[in-house]
């Protein structure tokens, strides 16, 4: 007879189980729901952020077919414009000056455009004057006319006709709000002025930052790249998307992985719960098998239960995930506090494909978690199962260790493989394999750990009973523990990684912040040589080292690296440059550059390599330095070489050494006073301690969500322990009745259960922490370098490790006791007679 | 709300009075050639306006219009940027093919500079990227325009001297003397060249009319548009007539001239010119009602003479609003004993001048 | 009808996994309406014999045939089908599922092969009435006494009209009075329905209602009287 013909009987059995234990099933469904919710929420938030980010990029770009971009904010010579405009395949070209402006302290991206060209190439960036107010024909070319996007208009609280003071590039100009930019997407703070006014008023004469290109016949101009100078590159939608994706991809993938961990833990919880449910029902299953239910009928029964749990849990999870994502976006912003998507508001975009994906994952976790124990139950001989109360305990059965060892070895091997497309996919597989191996090895580990205890004698009866029960049935213990081991391991791994990272950053900050005061000019402005000289004369200063930091695009599909021009001590070690590697020899006629570790890994450069930069000159890598601040890489060039290559004498930052006994506050005030009036309010001065605190705050904020996800995973794991402990305890009611009959006191049974719980927690803790430690090594030395391109040493957060272990022991013991009290509340005679 | 970039509106619409430092057009200026063929950048608005009829090798008649405009926006002259909008250039080209029943047209616009767009002083030499009109040392004009639908490369050979309109080139446009332009025409230009359509070049010949006008204050208050015609008469004569319309079609001003085949010129006072609509046509695109067939009446010393102006076809409306240009009707017309162009502006929207 | 052999066992042999032989050369025949009791000391292999008869365990040698079907020729699926249709079970521990109604418990063998709710419910109700629990069909196991639970189990064993009923100490958990009533009910029902029944028991009372009482020893079955 097939399962189909038995479906009525199956229905009775499933329905009966659900009526009998609704709370247990609800709990497993909730575990799945939490996993799905977290995964879906993180995915939604990331997806929304990225699409908003790309939308913002497209708006600023104004939907040009492609554009010629400057590789740095220094721009390129405007003489390139006619050459691009007349290049073969170019239908039209629109020159653009881009300024990071502030209007009343609010940041606005100011675009200088030729309205005639923009109308052909990027019509969404063309301003609209309100009817009725200023129909003067010259408004389009008026050098004081400013068109603002809705967001910019709101930010600066202006309306058409208002006069605004605009600051950019260290210059200020008064402009009249001439109209709006209805083509700009909501949330983007953009202003448009005439290109000639932009060049003149904000000191960018002769320079352009971008040329938007309209293609002829929809094909990319064939030889455009060949006419470009070094300081310009070609960008398109595709390269922009790649670049914005690259900016945060590693971070997003890591978050997605964490969310999946929560789902995985939920799957383990289902496995635990269903294992116990199956164990409890072994005799029922044996009976119906005796009565004539085929073997796969049992698997079908449990799988159907899992399916129902999965459907309910995953549906709940999707709803919850959407709500979570909404709340998170409103509360923390699109990058959940990590600072990757700094500008613009983010709208939640619903992702049907992702919803289906996470629903399926939730379903899979629930069904897989159910089918595995059911298959084991179905294999049990029905006659024996009917006679014995389920779990056939034989303390002599050896626990297999080989599968665990093989999985661990595979995991170790995967950790040695390189990243795929900048993502540490093998690293994550390695972690998954190690985790699977650890869980497969749990029975063996429990047996091994408890073996010395079980040989001992002369303990109190309850403790001895507890140890012998666990030692005899380690598989049962492992079942109860797999969820908690998985979540503990992952949490410990994350904690070790974050601690290592934070410790490395802290130490590094201490090394690089070796000066007394740091000065920075905000808002894209800078100090010209005269201002630099004036600041140098401020009393109380022994030395002041000026530097300039600009983003430099080395490849169109990669985010720009930071080019840092500053004085470098070359005749000895430079204290603010923590070199990992350095070289001596350098060919004549070349200038030295020192590249950060991420730059070295991203661009594959090593010490001694000749490097072509989009600024004039020939450069050779003289050293690789440690940098945790700029994930996209940084290059230090001597300020003298930089000025020679670019002619740019502006400096934006300064490191100041105070004279002995000088009061930092007094010097701060004097520096502020000596700054040029145009930079009033734009000069920020900070002490190393402040900078360090700020940096660590940023760090903690970017990992806040990581902590949150970990916490949830642990909670799900603990809930699993509670559920399985209580289920196991209740399943042993008859055993307790028998013990009561032979004269074991209630109190002793509770002690026994508490001991068992604590031992379980201990074993789980040891296993989880050990596994976590191993997985942390993969995170620190494989996944982190492959995702973020920096390396660090391992630091172990002993405090957190201890707390986790303690929490586990207490939680396991506590739930065991709670469940035990309920189990022994009934009278002993009834307990023995209890049939099921 | 309309895109700000109505640079045509900006050029043709001179809301700015002469007070902003543009030179005022006054009578009595002396014209020197070839200097006047070149640009006069101090003035706010200027154009090189070629209209004419072409005959293809297979004997078909086509009308064409090629216009280069120049305007000087009132911006800060001190701006040292090479992008400073000291001169804005734009151009229009349209082809009237009766077989098609509507105009084919294209346009170019740019601020002068970077060798991409310029209008030279001293002789005709206007470039807008790949479009240009130039006067060669031998006195012939060449012009090239390329649109999505057609390309024209023409040589225009003058066969008559320039005809100074108004009082020795001072052409009053309204009741006040400063409402005026400097204006001369070269009628009866012999046309030869090449027309490319659908990638196939063909030789064309024909006859054209060049209008040259520059001004700082073209239309007076209350004016909404004008009717203009320039006719090459078969006997070698050239007739130009215009009227400026106020609201409700009331004529505010009129003028024109007839140069007879022997070179004598008759100038028309406002009362000497009448336009009477004979047939109207409503544009399906803009809803504007154009008097596409008109009777032009001019008073000559020998008596009143009437010309019935019949369009090559009715729909010669030029709707370039997408490019920020105003809507107007610019069409090839025939008349008994001649042919030329009729221009009707301010019918769709009042031309804000 | 009366002389038709519903169960035929020939030359059965079985040892426990440790190597000790339980029995060998065991022959047994049961006819319709015949009730055979098997007695013997503990550990002699009575339950193992029952498991072999049910196809839940395999003999080392010999054959079991139920209604001319030889069990050792059947695969797992066929054995399962055979149990569901031709064999009924009564256990010492009743094994009445606590989360199903009594009617569902009785109907379980029918529900394994059919989905006709109405027919199943009618048959189960009739059988419940036959064991004297006709009004309790919607109740649950926890409402019943041990004797009542075993009545439910007997109803479940007979509801699908099997050829053979196997009972393992059916009165082991019952007091003597209740046990007597249950045994009477059981033997009446067996004779009424014309099934063959094998009872494994220690109880003299149980043996007393049997047509034949056989003692299981290592050399096979011996007639006790």
TrEMBL record, chain A:
The entry's keywords: Cell membrane, Membrane, Transmembrane, Transmembrane helix
Any one cellular-component term (Gene Ontology): plasma membrane protein complex
TM segment ranges: 25-45, 257-278, 298-329, 350-372, 404-426, 433-453, 473-498, 707-728, 749-776, 796-820
Matches recorded under Pfam families: FtsX, MacB_PCD
Annotated compartments: Cell membrane
InterPro entries: ABC3_permease_C, Lipoprotein-release_system, MacB_PCD
MacB-like periplasmic core domain location: 478-673
GO terms classed as biological process: lipoprotein localization to outer membrane
Domain ABC3 transporter permease C-terminal: 258-382, 712-824
Highest taxon of source: Bacteria
Location (main, coarse): membrane
Family recorded in the similarity comment: Belongs to the ABC-4 integral membrane protein family. LolC/E subfamily.
Listed PANTHER family: LIPOPROTEIN-RELEASING SYSTEM TRANSMEMBRANE PROTEIN LOLE
Name the UniProt record assigns to this protein: Putative ABC transport system permease protein
Source species: Sphingomonas aerolata
Species lineage: Bacteria, Pseudomonadati, Pseudomonadota, Alphaproteobacteria, Sphingomonadales
Automatic annotation (TrEMBL), chain B:
Entry keyword set: Hydrolase, Signal
InterPro entries documented for this protein: AttH-like_dom_sf, AttH_dom
Region forming the signal peptide: 1-20
Domain AttH, first and last residues per copy: 45-216
Gene3D superfamilies xref list: AttH-like domain
Superkingdom per UniProt: Bacteria
Transmembrane segments annotated in the record for this chain: none
Gene Ontology molecular function terms on file: hydrolase activity
UniProt protein name: Putative secreted hydrolase
Species: Sphingomonas aerolata
Organism lineage: Bacteria, Pseudomonadati, Pseudomonadota, Alphaproteobacteria, Sphingomonadales
TrEMBL record, chain C:
This protein's UniProt keywords: ATP-binding, Nucleotide-binding, Transport
Coiled-coil parts of chain: none
Keyword Transport on entry: yes
InterPro entries: AAA+_ATPase, ABC_transporter-like_ATP-bd, ABC_transporter-like_CS, ABC_transpr_LolD-like, MacB-like_ATP-bd, P-loop_NTPase
Record's signal peptide: none
SMART domains: AAA
Gene Ontology MF term list: ATP binding; ATP hydrolysis activity; transmembrane transporter activity
Entry annotated with the keyword Iron: no
A Pfam entry, by short name: ABC_tran
Cellular compartments per GO CC: plasma membrane
Name this polypeptide is given: Putative ABC transport system ATP-binding protein
Provenance organism: Sphingomonas aerolata
